Amino acid sequence: MTPDIMAAILNNSTRAAQELVKFSLTLLTAVLKALMVMSFVGLTACVGVPERRKDAGFAVMLPFMRMDGGECYYLDDFMPTPDNMVSGKSSGLHVRYYTFRSATYKAWEQERVMLAFYSRDSRCWSLFEEYSTGRF
């Protein structure tokens, strides 16, 4: 509170009561606005915007692979063009993640396939993870 409000309260004047009411209303308004903003942020954080899908109309046919560390795939020679590819390095291994928005792979349904490979020399790649998420 400001010194004027404190002095008015000590003098028991009508002005003090008016200032106190005005201060209380201002504080209450600020608290309510903050609560409204926090509740809006909380609601939008829990409910994500649905993803719009762009189906190409046909599925990419991915080659059938087994999860065997001894196999060697020359990915640049036979992998279809992915929707997204992330490549990097983890410890001494090279890593690649391929994602396909619409793909047919093994007995999985057509939609969202991710294949992950590792390599020691960036030429011969081995499959170590594979995922599929069906249509929703």
Q: In a nutshell, what does this entry contain?
A:
The chain is an alpha+beta fold and 136 residues long. The chain has two domains: 3-46; 60-132.
Descriptors:
single chain; 2 domains; 136 residues; 4-stranded antiparallel beta sheet; two-stranded parallel ribbon; alpha+beta; 3 helices; 33% helix
General description of the model:
There is one protein chain. The chain has 136 residues and is of the alpha+beta class. It has 2 domains: 3-46; 60-132. Helices cover 33% and strands 24% of the residues. Strands 2-3-5-6 form a 4-stranded antiparallel beta sheet, with no helix packed on it. Strands 1-4 form a two-stranded parallel sheet. Strand 2 (84-90) and strand 3 form a beta hairpin. Helix 1 crosses helix 2. The radius of gyration is 31 Å and the shape is rod-shaped.
Low-pLDDT segments, ≥5 res: 44-53
Question: What's the Cα radius of gyration?
Answer: 31 Å
Number of discrete domains: 2
- Mass-distribution shape: rod-shaped
Structural class: alpha+beta
> Strand share of the residues?
15-25%
Query: Would you count the extended β strands for me?
Result: 6
How can the largest sheet be summarized?
A: 4 strands, antiparallel
Compressed to H and E, one letter per element, the order equals: HHEHEEEEE
Mean pLDDT: 75
Helix fraction, binned, reads 25-40%
Strand order across the biggest sheet? 2-3-5-6
